[in-house]
Design goal:
The structure is a homodimer.
Chain A: E1 3-8, E2 12-16, H1 22-28, E3 47-52, E4 55-57, H2 65-70, E5 72-74, E6 78-80, E7 84-87, E8 118-124, H3 136-147, E9 153-155, H4 157-169, E10 173-180, E11 185-192, E12 200-206, E13 210-217, E14 223-230, H5 240-249, H6 253-273, E15 283-290, H7 292-299, H8 304-307, E16 321-322, E17 335-338, H9 348-356, E18 366-371, E19 375-380, E20 385-390, E21 411-417, E22 424-428, E23 436-437, H10 439-451, E24 470-473, E25 476-482, E26 493-496, H11 497-520, E27 530-535, H12 543-548, E28 560-562, H13 566-575, H14 578-590, E29 591-593, H15 602-608
Parallel strand pairs in A: 1-7, 9-11, 12-15, 15-17, 18-27, 20-29, 21-23, 27-28
Antiparallel strand pairs in A: 1-2, 3-5, 3-7, 4-6, 8-10, 10-11, 12-13, 13-14, 16-17, 18-19, 19-20, 21-22, 24-25, 25-26
Helix pairs in contact in A: 5-6, 9-13, 9-14, 11-15
């Protein structure tokens, strides 16, 4: 039995079969809806309003009485028993928004010499004679090798099929489209004459939460546009684990996830080429950096064993795939290069960052940290390299925090609480009224709450004078960062004691991972000579505050550099330089992965780090909080 | 306007549009009909009987009055103007027949060690642990490299996609399908466990006239079956030139020719696997040897410039193509390797032969000659190699000779005329009644006619005593080889003066090419230390007679070796040994092509060779004809 479901206010109609629920209907209709738990019925985010029709549903316990009386239900728990009409409220939608992609204040990872993975070359061939009657392919190869340093040349059947005509049509002048693959270079197309269409590449950062793409002019190396959006896979779950579970436990789950990321990328391509004289067929190479799970899902490769001990990915490195095999809206002959992973939880995004900072060329002992949903880090220099990952949780990306959000308009990115009167001042992205708080704001917030004597070293709210900035509901305590009157939502923007504990766990995981990794190689904090920080905290990060809360080691500020989204930077560098690409593969091979769950003292370190800044204050000699409660 | 055409006795119905003739209808219906001129209206071979309907036709002048009165017409010159019924007489059909493919008395080119281009390997992988958590692909590569010497390994997306499941399903035992491509080895498939299906390869000789294929067990190297058939492309013309013209001058001509050779090969595959427990999907590699034009047509590559000065092929060497791109009835993942050509008229069939005789490993100065429609030869040793081609014409394949035929049942393959009473004795293929005469018989015939005093050194019939073996029609003289009473056709089997002159031109071209090539490298006949003869003459060739008629140099018999169809032998050797394959590519690179039309004395040599054995008798010291007419 199939039922028609009309979805408002979109006015879209779709159908569901038996055993399908409203979440299936919404996904089928192509609408992005919040669903962190991947349809398990636990996150309560996929609330919809039932307007017409009957259904069987469970999950009522997840809704308030008022919501139930108003007709709300959880889409994932509602199975239609008639044709229905439903409305998806704005609060349940993953809205399209501008993900912050600018690289202000971040190192720009400029490539000085352009030697892109794809290029077009103008050639003039000698006209054959009875004394020089070599075949067309050899003639082409010889002319090309004379002009261009190439790996061994390949040419496909399709190109040979059009070669005799093209050479003579162009009167022995020809434009050759050359793709650098791996260990060889392929002539992927030819055009008669020298008037060729411009050509472009894409650099993509496939994040679990957001996807960012640069449209790159492959002749100048310039980014002609930058677009970012949510990863539409969010409807299948917020983190990589829930997406793997979805892929494994649903029939065609893997295909759905693959198609969803393809759609996400294709929409970015549409946005990037809109209003420009550029067609999808003018995009000839794509360079993608993503974590190991994202890369598996993008390529349609079973991620099952990433999640199960001993955490084995299906592959780490793969030769560039043809776009036609991945459904990307580019030239079908374009190649898709995915940066190599080194383990299930250290993926191509981290390798991209390690390449951006050229960690394997450094004389100094260098620490590279990328803070996302996980904290991943690489330590070493030109002699040796180790990497590890820890489950920091998405707190610094705004996940699991009452008013946490990513660094978009209205996000508090800098905040100070004045000790004594507890006045709060803040800065927001885009100078909008505050609607939430992003990673850089949360680091500030933890430090300033501590300095203002609002929390103790364990994150407990201290007993304080009555202030209109405090309230509590069901024994949970809240501090108001911005009152309803001044916020962009008309409601208080708050941070709770639970949020603070959550942030402490996140920062503790990162610091514990650094300590564990150092001890595994027999070094300590003072040996670190430079630190590169990457991640989606915001436009900048207050390193001083990050040290104060015990997230990063207590090292002189000048040793730190914040480089923003190094994943997309690395992807772009590689797109523009074939040597960097080869170098990246070698870099990945050089890194030894350390498994933190595997018989070392990570848990001990973690527990010790669950204080601000740390149980052992000697590790943070520069940090000195005045206790206001004493 | 479209008309229905019913074809008898096949009882097939097809339709033609305006501008289409009966030949088009017959081709569309899939019937093989003789048409040497490719539909030009000149060869008069495509005679059909009009039974019903009206048509406009020309070409009446090509038919006898009786044929016209009986209702015959040339299919290629007949354009239907109503629905029609026609009959194709047996004489107009290219009958399926057994092309002689056995290698009796020929060197068998045995490969002593099997290292085939495709193999299946049983592997057992270490089970991953927390201390050994490398990705599935690396684990597979490491296990494979430890067991098998491979070029750099590649693995495609499709195989990676099934890898995680397959490894665990087989409990870390797996069978890997490995294809040697070029400079790298690709894992093209994987199966769980060690119980794999047997695997096979095909070696194919794609001749202009006939196509021969071996089905090869890739584990033992044994040929499980040999099949041969006419190249169905014959309906588009007898020789490579008329096929190139067809490909170039007809819309979709190239596609038609490509499809026709695919069909020819697929029918051979059907015949080879019939009654065996072998499926097309069990064929994993194909090795093809063909002349340059045949290889272009097989791959759908424009052959236009092979025919036009300066005779430039589109390509000589090409990496193995995927079967799925060529419509072959094999495993779609099978690879098709085409042996390299070196010039427009020295193709992969010749390179196959040169590899069979290992000419580039020889200390002795070696001459390799392949006599087919063209005469092609390679001269040299391990130090240097040259090759050339001459238009010998198809006389020694039976083409253009009154009762010429290929070496099949009933072909006279050995013949003697007794001087004096002119009694004729013969041997035929299969000991059948004679129906014609094949290449080896024609060489004998020329020699014996000379010895019996029937022809002079220029090929003129001498005035002789009246004999019932002579007759003449329209000033053309005929000698009866077999009277109607003893022949298999019920008609006299004859040779005409024109046939003799034709044969002399063919043998002269071959000898002149040898002489020209020798002179170009500053050598002469006596420098030749060994000669390998290949071709479709028959089961054997009478070298003594070939010398007597001045076709091959007057060298001691022990310097000669007849190796039969060396094209298919070479294709099979390569299929079974990847090193031989690589060696063949190097061999082709080493050969310098000499263009006989290009400012040398070929024409002079040709004219001097238009005598039996030669104008210059000093070149043939062992040959001494007694003149019976003196």
């Amino acid at each position: 039995m199939a039922y028609k479901i009309v979805i408002w206010p979109d006015n879209l109609t779709t159908t569901v079969n038996d055993n399908e629920n409203l979440l299936d209907a919404i996904v089928t209709a192509g609408i992005s809806i919040k669903s962190s738990c991947g349809g398990a019925g636990t996150c309560s985010q996929c609330k919809v309003l039932i307007k017409k029709g009957t259904a069987s549903f469970s999950g009522a316990g997840k809704l308030t009485e008022q919501q139930l009386s108003e007709g709300y239900a959880l889409a994932c728990q509602t199975y239609p028993q008639s044709n229905m009409e439903i409305e998806i409220p704005a609060t349940s939608r993953l809205s399209e928004h501008q993900v912050l992609v600018s690289q202000d204040k971040a190192w720009d990872g400029t490539v000085t010499e352009i030697n892109p993975l794809f290029k077009k070359i103008k050639l003039e061939l000698q006209i054959p004679t009875l004394n020089d009657h070599s075949d067309d392919v050899s003639r082409l190869f010889n002319a090309l090798s004379a002009k261009e340093k190439t790996d061994p040349l390949r040419i496909g059947l399709e190109v040979i099929q059009k070669l005799p005509y093209t050479l003579r049509k162009g009167n022995w002048r020809i434009t050759v489209s050359l793709s650098y693959i791996k260990d060889y270079t392929e002539i992927v197309d030819i055009e008669p004459g020298w008037d060729y269409r411009q050509y472009y590449g894409l650099a993509i950062d496939i994040g679990t939460t957001t996807v960012v793409a640069h449209l790159v002019d492959m002749e100048t190396g310039e980014s002609l546009g930058i677009e970012g959006t949510y990863n539409k896979q969010a409807i299948f779950g917020d983190d990589v684990i829930s997406r793997i579970i979805y892929a494994v436990e649903h029939e065609s789950g893997l295909q759905e996830l693959q198609k969803t990321i393809q759609t996400t990328i294709n929409e970015l391509i549409n946005a990037l080429i809109k209003d420009k004289d550029i067609k999808p067929a003018d995009i000839w190479y794509v360079s993608c950096a993503g974590n190991t799970t994202m890369t598996h899902l993008f390529l349609g490769i079973d991620p099952t064993y990433i999640r199960l001990e001993p955490y084995v990915p299906a592959f780490n490195s793969i030769i560039p795939i043809k776009a036609v095999d991945l459904g990307l809206k580019t030239n079908p002959k374009a190649r898709i290069y995915c940066l190599p992973s080194i383990a299930s939880y250290v993926g191509g995004d981290i390798i991209a960052g390690a390449e951006v900072v050229r960690i394997h060329k450094q004389d100094k002992l260098t620490l590279f940290i990328d803070v996302g949903t996980n904290g991943e880090m690489v330590l070493g220099n030109k002699e040796w390299l180790v990497a590890c990952a820890c489950s920091a949780g998405p707190a610094f990306e705004g996940g699991g925090i009452t008013h946490g959000m990513r660094a978009m308009n209205g996000a508090i990115e800098h905040i100070r609480v004045k000790p004594g009167n507890l006045d709060v001042t803040w800065e927001t992205v885009g100078n909008k009224k505050p609607v939430g708080i992003c990673g850089s704001g949360l680091i500030d917030c933890l430090a300033t709450l501590m300095e203002a004597g609002i929390i103790d070293r364990s994150g407990n709210f201290l007993p304080l004078l009555l202030s209109n900035r405090f309230f509590s509901i069901d024994r949970e305590k809240y501090f108001i960062l911005a009152h309803a009157e001044v916020s962009g939502t008309g409601k208080d923007i708050t941070i709770s004691e639970a949020d603070v504990k959550n942030l402490i766990r996140s920062k503790a995981a990162i610091f514990a991972a650094i300590q564990t990794m150092l001890k595994m190689v027999g070094l300590s904090l003072e040996n670190i000579e430079q630190v590169y920080i990457a991640g989606g905290f915001g436009r900048y990060i207050n390193i001083a505050d990050a040290i104060k809360i015990g997230m990063f080691p207590d090292l002189p500020m000048e040793k730190y550099k914040y480089i923003g989204n190094s994943s997309i930077l690395g992807a772009k560098m590689i797109l523009l330089d074939s040597e960097t690409r080869d170098d990246t593969e070698k870099l990945a091979d050089k890194i030894t992965y350390l498994e933190l769950s595997d018989g070392n003292n990570f848990m001990e370190e973690f527990v010790s780090a669950l204080f601000i800044p740390h149980t052992n204050m000697q590790l943070f000699p520069s940090v000195n909080y005045v206790s206001h409660s004493e």
